[in-house]
Amino acid sequence: MSDIKVERLKNIKDLEMIAQEYAQYYTNSILQEKWTKESALELFHYFYKSYNDLIFVAYDDHYPVGIIASALKPWWDGFHLEDGEIFVSDKYRGMGIAKALFKTLFEYAYEKYNATIFEAHTYEGENRYPYCWYEKLGCHKEKELFIINGNIKEMMEKL
User: Fold this and answer.
1) Does the global pTM surpass 0.70?
2) H or E element: which one contains 115?
């Protein structure tokens, strides 16, 4: 990771480059999500409009190769980093970039907002990855809490 630098988003157009690779990766992942460059860009613009100080990008020279973004939610025990998203371009994986992105975000959020907790959802694909990676960082599955979701149209019909 010697030439890779993690810093604040330099240019909003950098989100377009990351969005294209993000969409390709997750569309072809075990999740089989149907991302497009436009929908991925909309996701990153959500963070930019709401929490632009919580976006950090890994740059190889001036080319964006990774991103981390998060929301900040006040809670009873302090601010929580929630609804976060991290992505590192395929050919840059395994170089410590994700760790550097997390470290930068955590240090900033802790110093500026006194953030106390990081909460996220993830999945287990082949060889338990990426959940096993989060476990190594100290994350664990909550015993009492779990993620729910529902189709809004179907839910409206039941109300």
Assistant:
1) yes
2) none
DSSP per residue, 59-86: EETTEEEEEEEEEEEEETTEEEEEEEEE
What are the tens digits of pLDDT across the range 116-131?
A: 999 888 777 777 777 7
Assigned token pair, 47: 């963070």
- Which domain CATH number covers 21? 3.40.630.30
* CA-to-CA dists, residue 11 to 16, 39, 71, angstroms: 10, 19, 20
User: What is the domain count for the chain?
Assistant: 1
Cβ–Cβ < 8 Å for 72, 113 = yes
Q: Where are the alpha helices (H) located in the chain, listed in sequence order?
A: 14-27, 37-51, 97-113, 131-137, 152-158
End-to-end, the C-alpha distance of the chain in Å comes to 52
